[in-house]
């Protein structure tokens, strides 16, 4: 793996927490660190799965927001391209060398649509649609810039978020896309986001089975109208095995598998055990900064260092101490044995990896206790 940024010392103006070759112990905290060995195994494992099933993987960059990681997933994990959620994310990925991007979201603002059309001059660009009027606006922008924008009609297959009902509403939009200049109907977006973190195996499986049936019936209805789906896309880290084995979906959109987080450690398999095919590779590196109470330590990773929407972080590799509370700049750690000392370093598994990554400018990537490379969080803050 090539080091894309070689910095020997932290540079205050660039907010760089580490330098290549530095010992992990010397990295400034709090920092977002990646265990490269675990990360690479995760990428390979997903690559093995898609190859075995004969399907594609359009990895979701909303997890990492990094052009460097995206290119690694394409080169080493067999990803056919990237998903992202915002036009700005797509622009950043394409600028970083990605040539195939799906904005797995609706783009309805006219200025954003115009940017999307301009981006289609540089890469294959796809977008999700769930509104007939949006089709007209996308077509006008594509004609204006002399490009083709590929469209996936989004089905609400249980998440209760974006997307139309399966069946006839999908066919209606697909027909309009096929008759609109500058656009191409490329298939379906059917991501059951609400199922990803359902901890119980049978409940999670039932939600996806219901989604798969809706999608399969819709594909048949489209075929009856001579509308073929190049892409039937969806699936995430919590459910990919179901969609990937369904014979209906042909393109996965998993993201968190490369890192994993504390909430995914609560998702169970059919034996009631934690799903274990992917490893924790992403951590918040934090230091003990105060220990004035015998049973309590304070670390420097608080609310501003992470997202806690899916719960508090878990301290990696330790069962003698527990992260129990946080405020803006402080994390409270229960230390009943009074074992922690000032400047002790801990790895925190974030409760939710995706929004946590958006807090940082850099990934500090290490192997065998040494910083090997730094990756910028290229699309950090790209929310428009």
Structure description:
28% of the residues lie in helices and 24% in strands. It is an alpha/beta fold and 384 residues long. It has 2 domains: 12-35 and 280-376, Lyase, Ornithine Decarboxylase, Chain A, domain 1 (Beta Barrel); 37-266, TIM Barrel. The strands form 2 sheets. Strands 1, 10, 11, 12, 13, 14, 15, 16 and 17 form a 9-stranded mixed β-sheet that branches. β4, α4 and β5 (124-129) form a beta-alpha-beta unit. α3 (87-95) runs parallel beside α4 and α4 (110-119) packs across α5 (132-145).
Key words describing this protein structure:
384 residues, alpha/beta, Lyase, Ornithine Decarboxylase, Chain A, domain 1, TIM Barrel, 2 domains, nine-stranded mixed β-sheet, eight-stranded parallel β-barrel, 9 helices, globular, disordered N terminus
Provide the CATH superfamily of the largest domain. Answer: Alanine racemase
The tally of strands reads 17
- Estimate the mean pLDDT confidence: 94
Overall structural domain count: 2
For the largest beta-sheet, the strand count, sense and barrel status come to: 9 strands, mixed
Quaternary status of these chains?
single chain
Helix content: 25-40%
Topology:
Blueprint: E1 31-35, H1 36-53, E2 56-60, H2 67-77, E3 81-84, H3 87-95, E4 100-106, H4 110-119, E5 124-129, H5 132-145, E6 149-154, H6 168-178, E7 183-189, H7 201-224, E8 231-234, H8 240-244, E9 251-252, E10 282-293, E11 296-299, E12 314-315, E13 322-326, E14 331-334, E15 345-349, H9 353-357, E16 362-367, E17 370-376
Parallel strand pairs: 1-16, 2-3, 2-9, 3-4, 4-5, 5-6, 6-7, 7-8, 8-9
Antiparallel strand pairs: 1-10, 10-11, 10-15, 11-14, 12-15, 13-14, 16-17
């Amino acid at each position: 793996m090539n080091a894309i940024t070689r910095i020997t010392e932290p540079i205050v103006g660039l907010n760089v927490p580490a330098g290549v070759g530095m010992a992990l112990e010397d990295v400034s905290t709090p920092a977002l660190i990646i265990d490269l060995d675990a990360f690479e195994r995760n990428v390979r494992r997903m690559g093995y799965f898609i190859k075995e099933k004969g399907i594609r993987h359009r990895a979701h960059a909303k997890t990492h927001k990094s052009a460097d990681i995206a290119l690694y997933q394409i080169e080493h994990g067999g990803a056919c391209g990237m998903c992202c959620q915002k036009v700005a994310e797509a622009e950043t990925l394409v600028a970083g060398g990605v040539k195939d991007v799906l904005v797995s979201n609706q783009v309805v603002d006219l200025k954003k649509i115009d940017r999307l059309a301009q981006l289609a001059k540089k890469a294959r660009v796809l977008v999700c649609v769930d509104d007939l009027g949006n089709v007209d606006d996308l077509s006008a922008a594509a004609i204006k810039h002399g490009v083709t924008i590929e469209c996936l009609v989004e089905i609400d297959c249980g998440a209760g978020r974006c997307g139309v009902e399966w069946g006839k509403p999908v066919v209606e939009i697909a027909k309009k896309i096929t008759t609109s200049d500058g656009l191409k109907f490329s298939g379906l977006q059917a991501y059951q986001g609400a199922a990803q973190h359902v901890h119980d195996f049978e409940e999670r499986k039932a939600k996806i089975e219901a989604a798969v049936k809706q999608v399969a019936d819709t594909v048949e209805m489209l075929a009856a109208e001579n509308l073929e789906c190049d892409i039937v896309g969806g699936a995430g880290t919590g459910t990919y095995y179901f969609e990937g084995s369904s014979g209906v979906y042909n393109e996965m959109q998993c993201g968190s598998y490369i890192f994993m987080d504390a909430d995914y450690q609560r998702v169970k398999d059919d034996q009631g055990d934690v799903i274990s095919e992917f490893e924790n590779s992403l951590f918040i590196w934090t230091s003990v900064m105060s220990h004035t109470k015998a049973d309590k330590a304070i670390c420097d990773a608080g609310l501003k260092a992470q997202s806690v929407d899916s719960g508090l972080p878990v301290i990696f590799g330790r069962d003698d101490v527990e992260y129990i509370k946080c405020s803006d700049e402080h994390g409270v750690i229960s230390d009943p044995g009074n074992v922690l000392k000032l400047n002790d370093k801990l790895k925190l598994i974030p409760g939710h990896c995706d929004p946590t990554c958006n807090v940082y400018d850099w990934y500090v990537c290490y192997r065998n206790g040494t910083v090997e490379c730094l990756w910028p969080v290229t699309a950090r803050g790209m929310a428009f």
